[in-house]
Specification:
Blueprint (H helix, E strand, L loop, with lengths): L1 H20 L1 H9 L12 H6 L5 H10 L2 E6 L2 E6 L2 H8 L6 E2 L1 H11 L10 H9 L5 H6 L1 H16 L10 H17 L7 H4 L2 H18 L6 H7 L1 H25 L13 H10 L5 H32 L1 H14 L10 H6 L1 H13 L5 E5 L4 E2 L5 E2 L4 E5 H4 L3 H4 L13 H6 L18 H18 E4 L9 E2 L5 E2 L6 E4 L2
Parallel strand pairs: 2-7
Antiparallel strand pairs: 1-2, 3-4, 4-7, 5-6, 8-11, 9-10
Helix pairs in contact: 6-12, 9-10, 9-23, 10-16, 12-14, 14-16, 15-16, 16-19, 16-23, 17-19
Bound molecules: protoporphyrin IX containing FE.
């Protein structure tokens, strides 16, 4: 009897201690209201029932405010679309870590590299890799960008007069080849898994699995993952995507140091191998770094080109304006060389691209985590170990900063005078602060150049309506239904 009383008393004691330790979170719930969801599951079920539609987050924010507090499973999460709060977070040295669930979900699939590393390792690695994104290195990629976009344009020619086609798989193949050539210095064309599309399918499966890991943190438990069949899926697909990267590294490592210098000496692979030879990176770290970079580069640039094509197909007047600018810059259709100077002069295309990145950002939400209490400018303190959702998608549509027509496609949002008036953190497709996208300049060069060639050569159309686009939360942007496109040659 005494033992039972003792156990009950101990239980009550630990329960109160648990609640006491989380008192800051309960205080936060009152300061920043949000949907609470179910015990242990939080809003995970509601989210799943709603098919992870991003509009659900907008509904929460319209109801509770631009910064909300909620629970994903047992994990406390603060989500914001408020540029002032975003500035507090993105400039804080205590919010540099990605959330542990995202890190583990991604790291177990493609290794722990720059995308997933946490402090203090991240800071060292970022400094080690920054030289691979210097202007000179990016300029040395221009021949690759020109060559690969030429291949894509030729492929699109086969779609002319063929009715509406799903072009996303071909665009992903273009962005993947480009990413492999620039970051790994290798052509993937002859790899069997690339040829038979297994590689690209495995990447999409892995991106889906990373998302599940973030939304349902319980799935990271090995036993639960095995029970759900996720573990088998992860191992199988991770093997497929890591193999080509591993083969290239092994081949490069076999070359002597003198023979290994390629025409582009500071590419990611060369830098990683130098760091390996000087003892600063292990073999595993070289592999992870390369896999992280390839995924970060190809998925986002591919999606951006595709989203721009979709939006311009839906808004032909804006497409014609982009075409007029391109026709002036490149009077003859077919293949032409695009230089850095050409890119700088294409101002209208810039506006179109920015408007696309605003309405359909390839990374819709970036999960961070506090390592200490973080005071915000509105007086609220985010406690240590809280996950923060940098809601890029909702920030870009926040009516308080983009006006009542925030949902409308309008490249004039990026006229210089309109940019000047806007909060600098209202547009953050590449995030901002110390841990922004390391590849943002690479991305803009590659995407703009490719769009210039596509839009100069083809008039793109679609029967899909802008109002029918449904955005689904994923590690990278997902559309519930892929609009199909048709092509007509331009002269
Ligand atoms: C339009 C294309 C791109 C978009 C919209 C984009 C967006 C982003 C965003 C939002 C982040 C921050 C995520 C976070 O804070 O959690 C990020 C990080 C990153 N991006 Fe990009 N990205 C693009 C292209 C690229 C390219 C081309 C590369 C490489 C060649 C790249 C490499 C990376 C890496 C390595 C990180 C992690 C940086 C770090 O944590 O230090 N990205 N990107």
């Amino acid at each position: 009897m005494l033992t039972i009383h003792f156990l009950i008393a101990a239980g009550i004691f630990f329960w109160f201690r648990f609640l006491w330790n989380r008192r800051c979170l309960y205080k936060l719930m009152f300061q920043l209201p949000g949907p609470m969801g179910l015990p242990l599951l939080g809003i995970a079920i509601e989210y799943t029932i709603n098919k992870r539609k991003m509009s659900l987050r907008a509904q929460y924010m319209d109801k509770y405010g631009s910064t909300i507090f909620s629970w994903l499973g047992p994990v406390p999460i603060l989500v914001t679309r408020d540029p002032t709060i975003l500035k507090d977070i993105l400039t804080s040295s205590d919010c540099l870590n990605k959330s542990l669930h995202m890190v583990n979900g991604m790291g177990t699939c493609i290794g722990f590299g720059l995308v997933t590393l946490r402090e203090p390792k991240w800071d060292i690695r970022r400094k080690q890799l920054n030289p691979t994104f210097k202007h000179g290195v990016l300029l040395s990629f221009m021949p690759v960008f020109n060559d690969e976009s030429k291949t894509l344009v030729s492929l699109l020619d086969t779609f002319v007069g063929q009715g509406e086609k799903d072009v996303l798989p071909d665009i992903h193949r273009w962005s993947f080849r480009t990413a492999m050539k620039t970051t790994m210095g290798s052509d993937i064309q002859e790899d069997q898994t690339f040829k038979d599309d297994k590689l690209m399918e495995s990447y999409q499966t892995i991106i889906g699995l990373i998302t599940v890991n973030v939304i349902f943190p319980l799935v990271q438990n090995k036993f639960i993952a095995k029970l759900c069949g996720y573990e088998k899926k992860r191992l199988k697909n991770a093997l497929v995507i890591n193999k080509p990267v591993e083969n290239i590294i092994d081949k490069k490592l076999k070359c002597t140091e003198e023979n290994s210098t390629s025409s582009i000496s500071n590419t990611l692979i060369n830098r990683a191998i130098d760091l390996f030879r000087s003892g600063d990176l292990s073999y595993e770290e070289v592999k992870s770094e390369c896999s992280n970079m390839v995924l970060a580069a190809f998925e986002t640039t591919g999606l951006t080109v595709w989203h721009t094509m979709i939006l311009l197909a839906m808004f032909p007047d804006y497409q014609d304006m982009a075409f007029e600018e391109l026709k002036k810059a490149f009077p003859t259709n077919g293949d032409f060389e695009v230089t850095e100077e050409d890119l700088q002069n294409l101002e209208y295309l810039d506006r179109v691209l920015n408007e696309t990145l605003r309405l359909i950002p390839p990374i819709p939400i970036a999960p961070r985590e506090t390592i200490r209490d973080v005071p915000l400018s509105n007086g609220v303190v985010i406690p240590k170990d809280v996950v923060i959702g940098i809601d890029i998608f909702s920030t870009h549509r926040n009516p308080d900063f983009w006006g009542s027509e925030a949902e409308k496609f309008n490249p004039d949002n990026f006229l210089p005078e309109n940019i000047l008036e806007r909060h600098p953190y209202a547009f953050i497709p590449f995030s901002r602060g110390k841990r922004n996208c390391i590849g943002w300049k690479y991305a803009l060069m590659s995407v703009k150049l490719t769009l210039a060639k596509i839009l100069r050569n083809y008039k793109i159309g679609t029967s899909f309506r802008y109002e029918d686009l449904v955005f689904v939360d994923n590690t990278a942007m997902k559309l519930a239904q892929s609009p199909k496109l048709h092509f007509q040659r331009r002269t």
